[in-house]
Design a protein that fits this description.
Blueprint (H helix, E strand, L loop, with lengths): L6 H21 L7 E5 L2 E4 H17 L4 E4 L13 E9 L1 H5 L6 E8 L2 E9 L4 E6 L4 E3 L2 E2 L25 H4 L1
Helix pairs in contact: 1-2
């Protein structure tokens, strides 16, 4: 990356890449994974937990006074009352991952006083790194991302990622 990154963002990138390496190794042996259910169509695997652990260790090694809000372990790590909170989804797209559909990512954000300041989304299958710092724009690898000039919905490509769980209000997502 030619872009000079904020030190906290750099730490998030390091953590995301470490988690991505765990996910990529596990993707080679999907049939050996232990998988549990949080609810219908809501899975958690040992990969989610291992990826989350490496992220938390990497973040707290660099910033031991920060709070952590993680998908699998909640707020049980870090300094609960810090002004800085790391928000982690270690394997965003677990259902896709478990089905061998390579559309998933590692998502990490840092909020200061409840306002997100830094964010990283790492796609380990393509080695694509999306990142942003508040006020400095968003990037994919070394390329600046820009909003499309399209103004009509009929000319746009729209992707959705609605969760599918029993009892969900699909209308609300629409």
């Amino acid at each position: 990356m030619s872009q000079a990154l904020h030190p906290m963002l750099n730490t998030a990138v390091k953590a995301a890449r470490a988690a991505g390496a765990i996910i990529n190794r596990a993707a080679l042996d999907l049939d050996l994974l232990k998988v549990g259910r949080k609810g219908p169509n809501d899975y958690v695997s040992e990969v989610d937990r291992a990826a989350e652990d490496i992220i938390i260790r990497t973040l707290l090694e660099a910033y031991p006074g920060h709070a952590i809000l993680a998908e699998e372990s909640g707020r049980e790590h870090g300094a609960r009352h810090s002004e800085y909170t790391w928000i982690i989804d270690p394997l965003d797209g677990t259902t896709n991952f478990l089905h061998g559909f390579p559309v998933y990512a590692v998502s990490i954000a840092l909020a200061h006083r409840d306002v997100v300041q830094q964010a990283v989304v790492y796609d380990p299958t393509r080695n694509d790194l999306f990142f942003a710092s508040r006020g400095r724009g968003a990037f994919l690898n070394d390329r600046r991302l820009r909003v499309s000039k399209r103004t009509r919905m009929g000319d746009a490509l729209i992707g959705t990622g609605f969760p599918f769980r029993r009892g969900d209000n699909v209308q609300r997502y629409l």
